[in-house]
Amino acid sequence: MTTTLITGANKGLGFETARRLVAAGHTVYIGSRDAERGRLAAERLGARTVLIDVTDDTSVAAAAKAVEADGGLDVLINNAGIEERSPDGGVLGPEEESADMMRRLFDTNVFGVVRVTLAFLPLLRRSAAPVVVNLSSGLGSMTRVTTPGTPTWGYPGLIYPASKTAVNMITVQYAKAFPGIRINAVEPGYTRTDLNANTGTQTVEEGAEIIVRMAQVGPDGPTGGYFDVNGPLPW
Ligand SMILES: NC(=O)c1ccc[n+]([C@@H]2O[C@H](COP(=O)([O-])OP(=O)(O)OC[C@H]3O[C@@H](n4cnc5c(N)ncnc54)[C@H](OP(=O)(O)O)[C@@H]3O)[C@@H](O)[C@H]2O)c1
Questions:
Q1: Are strands 231-232 and 226-228 parallel, antiparallel or unpaired?
Q2: Which one, 94, 100, 132, 173, has the greatest CB density within 10 A?
Q3: Which of 33, 184, 195 to mutate to test the pocket of ligand 1 (most atoms within 8 A of CB)?
Q4: Range of 61's domain?
Q5: pTM here?
Q6: How far apart are the C-alpha atoms of 107 and 82, rounded to whole Å?
Q7: Ligand 1: residues within 6 Å at CB?
């Protein structure tokens, strides 16, 4: 029996991933920073729920303790993420994005990944086939951002792409440091969720495909990679 925790799984890609992994037979924890939203989502899926705010050390430590007490963890999906948008849902440009905004966004998208991974590392090390999936983005690809003519090149924002490039680096360095764990970054594709004011062109079913796939890699599967649904991506 595989036990999986997905942070920020009360809605969006995390929720759809939880739905699919429950169907695949995983015992799934819906990580939610709001107890009621987590409870309602878990109830809909026949999943468990755990309260976890990825920006809060105490909350993350308590979540790790609760999951450990319930039997441990095999798969961690670092999914919780945010993107700064203007009140009308538009993407902000570099002049509108301050250092304070960057600190706030990095606390969730980047420091959250470090905080949660380190807290759950002792549990993952006790698993026979531990896996970590980090939610990156195509916007984290330095190659794509510097290739004129691609949609990624045309994205004007600063902080969100920088956060996902950092997630890619964290993925690579963790994969080297923890060779017993399969650790990969994934790009779900531009998916209609609250994150982008529902402007995405894909459904959550399409977006969750690569997350679900990388959550199920075996001990011989890839590690330290960056994938979308069609295969490896350029860094
Ligand atoms: N949608 C896309 O096109 C796209 C593309 C590439 C990558 N991604 C990545 O995919 C991941 C999921 O995004 P999504 O599109 O599904 O967005 P979403 O629908 O807005 O869901 C984001 C989830 O993260 C949770 N969250 C935010 N801050 C948190 C915190 N401090 N602690 C715990 N949970 C927190 C949210 O909880 P609340 O409900 O409490 O706010 C929500 O459950 C993100 O990492 C995002 O960057 C998305």
A1: antiparallel
A2: 132
A3: 195
A4: 3-232
A5: 0.98
A6: 10
A7: 7-8, 10-14, 33-34, 37, 52-55, 79-82, 108, 135, 137, 187-188, 190-191, 193-196, 200
